[in-house]
Amino acid sequence: MSLHMKWAWSIVSMVIAGIILCAGCSSSISETTTDPTQEFNDALLTATYAVTISPSATPSPLPPTQTPSPTITLTSTATPYSGTPPPLPGAFQSGLLRLNTQPQTYLEDTCAYLKDRWDPNNSAPGSVVMAVMYHSVAADDTLLSSTADVHDKDMRAFLEYAHELGFSTVTTQQLVDFLEHNAKIPERSLILIVDDRRPGAVREHFMPYLEEYNWTLTLAWIIGDTDTRPASYLGCCPEENFSSLWEQMETYNSTGRLDVQAHGYIHNINISENSTDDFILHEVLDPRAVLQEHFYCKDYTTGEIDPNCSTMQPLAFIWPGGNFTAHAAQIARQSGYHIGFTINPRGPVMFNWIPLAEAVDPMSPSWLPEIPAGDALMTLPRYWSYDAIDHIDDVVQIGQQAAEYAARNRSQELRYYDMMCKSTYGEIPGLEP
Question: Inter-axis angle of helices 152-164 and 388-420, to 10 degrees?
Answer without folding.
Answer: 40
